[in-house]
Design brief:
It is a single chain. The chain is an alpha+beta fold and about 150 residues long. It has a single domain, classed as Alpha-Beta Plaits (2-Layer Sandwich), CATH 3.30.70.1290. The protein has a 5-stranded antiparallel sheet with strand order 6-3-5-4-7, sandwiched between helices. A hairpin with a 3-residue loop joins strand 4 and strand 5. Helix 1 crosses helix 2. It is globular, with a radius of gyration of 15 Å. It starts with a strand and ends in a 7-residue tail after the last strand.
Length: about 150
Amino acid sequence: MSEYIHKSHNVTVLLYHLVFPAKYRRAVFDAQVDEVLRDVCLKIADRYQLKFLEIGTDEDHVHFLVQSVPSYPVTKLVTIIKSITAREIFRSCPHVKKQLWGGEFWTDGYFASTVGKHGDEDMIKKYVQNQGKEYLKLHEDRQLSLF
């Protein structure tokens, strides 16, 4: 669940819905890739000032519900998540690199939306779960914790 982040001069609750398609929209997400993706994202959350509230895959793309601080613009969040996850997935799952002809893991584009613009957090979660053919929830954080 999202929470208010208290810094020295501000209090924020910034939530982003991010969607990253795999390169060539290839269906590369299997159980092994899902596990590596979840583990890497949770390690990213430990190192950077962001929190993954939900991560879900749907054959050829991934949905993230991410909370962050205002000093991280959306482009920085996208760069951090895409670069680290791609490197670790290629390292841990060499069959994926072969499927993608040795190229990049993610497409250059992405979708980003703030939760407050189109509704509340639960509405966005329901929207994410109803997208695509087969939604598989990899992670959900409902425990309150300190950043």
